[in-house]
């Protein structure tokens, strides 16, 4: 609650969650926060497609009936009748079916969502979204992953909203994140190893580039994403108040192009 209060107080205006985040606890906590505040305009998004079953196991389904039920439960946990964006959470190409698009359009007509979205870090899925009816894309675009660069002008030309998830590149350039001193550190370490067993070497290389900007790691990462004219929002995760504050402050100082270019291959 303290993190959220500080964030919104400092001007952060977009909060993202999902039913599979801590087995619904992420939505429940966000719902509690959203209700105890008289909030300024905050954009809220959640997801369908990944969920959890009664025994706490993660499940995956893009069947309309399952998504409809999952979203109804999400709204109940959030204590809201509407969210701004509802993302398909990590769909594969075959999940981008007409009936799935129709489900999202129906949710718009019902007034339960404002915009439909896809959250994917897979290029084939994002390619397929360019000419789809999807309004918003949560992609991976950060100092460590520039694959989506070529798609950004195409999304812009079609009037789509683009959100960078993992805006901080999961802090792989900052070894302190992964010291297993507490449960959070251990969790970050295991997650990073699962995603890329060689992440430490990649992080070291990235740190050397970051040093050329004269910034610290997370500050450079945030300023890099905030500096892209075709990215509407840079989302990040943090468990620490000082990180929350410094990230928001960094987002207010977009990186100049000459420093942004350092992260692109020669
Ligand atoms: N990860 C995914 O696969 C994924 C998928 C779909 C959507 N998303 C969305 O994207 C959001 C962000 O993703 P993410 O949390 O995985 O990645 P991220 O924001 O790129 O990185 C989070 C990591 O950065 C650290 N960090 C934050 N601020 C820092 C600072 N100022 N200095 C040093 N380290 C800092 C955090 O540790 P501390 O807690 O110590 O600050 C955490 O280890 C998610 O919450 C979700 O909304 C993510």
UniProtKB/TrEMBL annotation:
Signal peptide position in this chain?
A: none
Q: Superkingdom of this entry's organism? A: Bacteria
Report domain NADP-dependent oxidoreductase positions.
2-255
InterPro entries named in the record? AKR2_Oxidoreductase, NAD(P)_OxRdtase_dom_sf, NADP_OxRdtase_dom
- SUPFAM superfamilies from the entry? NAD(P)-linked oxidoreductase
Q: What is this protein called?
A: NADP-dependent oxidoreductase domain-containing protein
Q: Which organism is it from?
A: Piscinibacter gummiphilus
């Amino acid at each position: 609650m303290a993190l959220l209060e500080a964030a919104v107080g400092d001007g952060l205006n977009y909060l993202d969650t999902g039913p599979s985040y801590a087995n619904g606890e992420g939505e429940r906590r966000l719902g509690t926060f959203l209700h105890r505040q008289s909030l300024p305009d905050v954009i809220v998004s959640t997801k369908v497609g990944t969920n959890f079953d009664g025994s706490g196991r993660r499940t995956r389904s893009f069947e309309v009936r399952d998504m409809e039920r999952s979203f109804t439960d999400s709204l109940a946990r959030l204590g809201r009748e509407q969210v701004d964006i509802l993302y398909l959470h990590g769909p594969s190409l075959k999940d981008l079916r007409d009936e799935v698009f129709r489900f999202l359009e129906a949710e718009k007509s019902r007034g339960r969502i404002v915009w439909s979205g896809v959250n994917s870090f897979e290029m084939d899925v994002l390619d397929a979204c360019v000419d789809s009816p999807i309004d918003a894309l949560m992609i991976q675009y950060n100092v460590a992953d520039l694959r989506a660069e070529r798609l950004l002008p195409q999304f812009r030309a079609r009037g789509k909203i683009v959100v960078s998830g993992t805006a901080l590149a999961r802090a792989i350039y900052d070894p302190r994140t992964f010291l297993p001193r507490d449960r959070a550190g251990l969790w970050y370490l295991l997650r990073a190893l699962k995603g890329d067993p060689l992440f430490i070497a990649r992080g070291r290389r990235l740190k050397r580039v970051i040093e050329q900007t004269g910034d610290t790691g997370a500050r450079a990462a945030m300023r890099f994403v905030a500096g892209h004219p075709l990215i509407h929002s840079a989302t990040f995760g943090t468990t620490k108040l000082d990180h929350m504050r410094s990230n928001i402050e960094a987002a207010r100082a977009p990186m100049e192009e000459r420093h942004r270019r350092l992260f692109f291959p020669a």
